[in-house]
Amino acid sequence: MSRIGKKPIDIPSGVEVTVGAEAVSVKGPKGSISTPIHPMVSYKVADGVVEVMRSGETRQECAQHGLHRTLLFNCIEGVSKGYSKTLEVVGVGYKVSVQGKNIILNVGYSHPVQFPLPAGIEAKAEGSKLTVNGIDKQLVGEVAAQVRRVRPPEPYKGKGIKYIDEQIRRKAGKSGKK
């Protein structure tokens, strides 16, 4: 029995969950988002609670049960509170700024790197910190990972773009002649 799948999901006030033929759509104060329905999983919405049920007990059905419950929970959490990831730019002369729907990164290349933001994602730069916000947890994480890939942190001085809570494993530099 899936421990995650059998937990009911509470629907916060101001959030509306609609089960359709091919997708479950969720509307809330921050926007609307939908997640696809798998044929092995069914949904029941009643009294401010969503229950996710599966059709059988096979390994595949158990896996889909927990997965689709978590996807729906992430949608409800996203439209009510939203998700954010914070990145930090470390290095002498390294800067980050946001102009419209583009992130401008000056991270040691001969030219500034322009990173276009996809629809539904917002970014805010404060000094050397960049915060990526949105209602889709997967998209927020993917955009933050793509920004980090522009200049990943290097192990000697720790220069580059890193997550705010990331610990960089440092290496010792060259040792002098003996």
Automatic annotation (TrEMBL):
Residues covered by the Large ribosomal subunit protein uL6 alpha-beta domain: 11-82, 90-163
Function summary: This protein binds to the 23S rRNA, and is important in its secondary structure. It is located near the subunit interface in the base of the L7/L12 stalk, and near the tRNA binding site of the peptidyltransferase center.
Pfam families reported in the protein's UniProt record: Ribosomal_L6
Gene Ontology biological-process entries: cytoplasmic translation
Stretches of the chain forming a coiled coil according to its record: none
The protein's name in its UniProt record: Large ribosomal subunit protein uL6
Classification via InterPro entries: Ribosomal_uL6-like, Ribosomal_uL6-like_a/b-dom_sf, Ribosomal_uL6_a/b-dom, Ribosomal_uL6_bac-type, Ribosomal_uL6_CS
Similarity-based family: Belongs to the universal ribosomal protein uL6 family.
Keyword field contains Membrane: no
SUPFAM superfamilies, alphabetized: Ribosomal protein L6 (SSF56053)
Subunit: Part of the 50S ribosomal subunit.
Record's keyword terms, sorted: Ribonucleoprotein, Ribosomal protein, RNA-binding, rRNA-binding
GO molecular function, one term: rRNA binding
Gene Ontology CC terms, in alphabetical order: cytosolic large ribosomal subunit
